[in-house]
């Protein structure tokens, strides 16, 4: 029997960040991961995330940001337009008195940086290539059966194990979900014109196309979300036909585009656990929710979850309180559910609004986008929310020290 305080299931960015945030408490922590340990390797940018200022603050706090920033691309502008109308909106870091609006980061490099920082904490144990056979709990403990009948006893288990969460299934936490009826096609592309550190997104009738700047000034990562029929067509194209379709979809904003990696497609679904807590088990990040990538907020939402949970647990430990009690876990659930619900609703509204082809609605959204672009105060509010400079943020993520989060 192996005893510890907290077991984190999942060594993705959320799970590793949570372990780092909790390490200073002195609690004995174990991280379980079914896959391999992160390894330093050539950066491919095959799967990337847009990190905002709030996420940067959290990653700075745990010491991982310098290594992440070394392979990331800071972007200073955002351009969003509707291919089906005159609607357009632009955001500029200078206008917001900022140096950057965000960073495009390689997902695996985020994990590598976090893993390297965890090597400095003797109270955190990481078990990779780990098979979980079962999870059961009593009033006082959670028992996890791993690797050929080895038992791990914990006071709290955290499910940070992604959209197909084993913790969520074992704890029988109900899941609401619907199919976005979109697939996300991702690839690295070369551009004829330099991207000028600008993140771009065009809303097409079949779904949004994002062009995300990479360290090479003439290279971008694309996330092309489209309906299954269009996705099948694009994936079946030869390289020349795909490049032509991509260039046309982008309105040649960066000149002729050419794919540099083979496109991969991922089905997009909204998932939302109606309960995030059961006894001494709690969900974070993609195990609790997943959203459409059109606003690039998935990773940021997950990192705010773990920062919030770590804040409440750390406060309980400092006050010699039970960090695994249901009342504390419910505080976390109420706090972060509100943020997740808001973002899920916003993403669904955007998706439905821009996929509607009715002429009147196209005119309304065009006027709306262009109108917002002419209202600096409203643009500032929108960009502040996107950058993580507003909302009910954990302390570490706030742009300045605020009062303690209330129960």
Automatic annotation (TrEMBL):
Top-level taxon of the source organism: Bacteria
Signal peptide bounds: none
Record key words, sorted: FAD, Flavoprotein, Monooxygenase, Oxidoreductase
PROSITE patterns: UBIH
Domain FAD-binding: 5-344
Xref: InterPro entries: FAD-bd, FAD/NAD-bd_sf, Ubi_Hdrlase_CS, UbiH/COQ6, UbiH/COQ6_monooxygenase
Coiled-coil regions, chain positions: none
Metabolic or biological pathway: Cofactor biosynthesis; ubiquinone biosynthesis
Cofactor: FAD
The family this protein is said to belong to: Belongs to the UbiH/COQ6 family.
Annotated NCBIfam families: Ubi-OHases
Name under which the protein is recorded: FAD-dependent 2-octaprenylphenol hydroxylase
Source organism (scientific name): Rheinheimera aquimaris
Taxonomic path: Bacteria, Pseudomonadati, Pseudomonadota, Gammaproteobacteria, Chromatiales
């Amino acid at each position: 029997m192996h005893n510890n305080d907290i077991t984190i299931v999942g060594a993705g960015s959320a799970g590793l960040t949570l372990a780092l945030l909790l390490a200073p408490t002195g609690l004995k922590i174990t991280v379980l991961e079914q896959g391999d340990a992160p390894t330093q390797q050539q950066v491919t940018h095959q799967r990337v995330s847009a990190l905002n200022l709030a996420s940067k603050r959290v990653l700075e706090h745990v010491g991982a940001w310098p290594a992440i920033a070394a392979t990331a691309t800071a972007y200073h502008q955002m351009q969003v337009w509707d291919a089906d109308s005159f609607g357009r909106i632009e955001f500029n870091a200078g206008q917001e008195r900022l140096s950057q609006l965000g960073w495009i980061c390689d997902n695996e490099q985020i994990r590598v940086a976090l893993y390297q920082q965890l090597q400095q904490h003797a109270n955190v144990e990481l078990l990779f290539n780990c098979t979980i056979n079962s999870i059961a709990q009593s009033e006082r403990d959670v028992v996890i059966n791993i690797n050929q009948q080895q038992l791990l006893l914990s006071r709290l288990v955290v499910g940070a194990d992604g959209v197909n969460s084993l913790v969520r299934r074992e704890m029988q936490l109900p899941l609401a979900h619907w199919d976005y009826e979109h697939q996300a096609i991702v690839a690295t592309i070369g551009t004829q014109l330099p991207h000028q550190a600008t993140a771009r997104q065009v809303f097409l009738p079949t779904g949004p196309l994002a062009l995300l700047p990479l360290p090479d000034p003439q290279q971008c990562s694309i996330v092309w979300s489209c309906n299954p029929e269009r996705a099948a067509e694009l994936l079946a194209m030869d390289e020349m036909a795909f490049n032509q379709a991509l260039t046309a979809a982008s309105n040649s904003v960066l000149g002729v585009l050419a794919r540099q990696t083979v496109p991969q497609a991922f089905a997009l679904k909204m998932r939302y656990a109606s309960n995030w807590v059961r006894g001494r088990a709690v969900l974070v990040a993609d195990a609790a929710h997943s959203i459409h990538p059109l606003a690039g907020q998935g990773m940021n939402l997950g990192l705010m979850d773990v920062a919030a949970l770590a804040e409440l647990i750390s406060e309980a430990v400092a006050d010699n309180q039970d960090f695994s009690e249901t009342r504390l876990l419910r505080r976390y659930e109420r706090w972060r559910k509100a943020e997740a619900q808001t973002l899920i609703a916003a993403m669904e509204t955007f998706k439905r609004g821009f996929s509607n082809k009715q002429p009147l609605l196209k005119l309304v959204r065009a006027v709306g986008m262009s109108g917002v672009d002419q209202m600096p105060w409203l643009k500032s509010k929108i960009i502040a929310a996107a950058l993580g400079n507003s909302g009910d943020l954990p302390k570490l993520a706030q742009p300045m020290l605020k009062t303690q989060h209330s129960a």
